[in-house]
Amino acid sequence: MFTERLKQLRKEAGLTQKEIAEQVSMSQPQYNRTENGGRAPSKETLELFAKFFNVSTDYLLGNSDIRNPEEEIDLDDFELLYRNTSKGLSAEEKNQLASDLKNFLLERQRLINERELAKRD
């Protein structure tokens, strides 16, 4: 999966193997072996490509279909937002707020997932 994602990201960026290799301070043959599966990436190399393409290492490895981890719903942020906005509300209003926030985040995640699927087609 890694090699497929790396190749896909390079093509989406409109760059050649040589151009990517130069930008990440790697030789073109070394990059070629990495992209074609002849060489397993080290943790450092994986992180380098993730940073270069602005994706997560999980996305590169095929463990996630979400490219950018900042787009994922963070439950800690959700909880903090709920706490900060629910002060002084009645129990019914708090329940409504929690429901509204949950629906908003689920809808946002659905749209992100649709966008990711459309990019693959």
Automatic annotation (TrEMBL):
Q: Which Gene3D superfamilies match?
A: lambda repressor-like DNA-binding domains
The UniProt keywords, alphabetically, are:
Coiled coil, DNA-binding
Q: Origin, by domain of life?
A: Bacteria
Task: Fetch the SUPFAM superfamilies from UniProt.
Answer: lambda repressor-like DNA-binding domains
Residue intervals passing through the bilayer: none
Q: Which CDD domains match?
A: HTH_XRE
Q: Which residues form a coiled coil?
A: 94-121
Which InterPro entries does the annotation name? Cro/C1-type_HTH, Lambda_DNA-bd_dom_sf
Q: Which residues form the HTH cro/C1-type domain?
A: 6-60
- Any single Pfam family the record assigns to this protein: HTH_3
The GO terms describing molecular function are: DNA binding
Q: What is this protein called?
A: Helix-turn-helix domain-containing protein
Originating species? Streptococcus suis
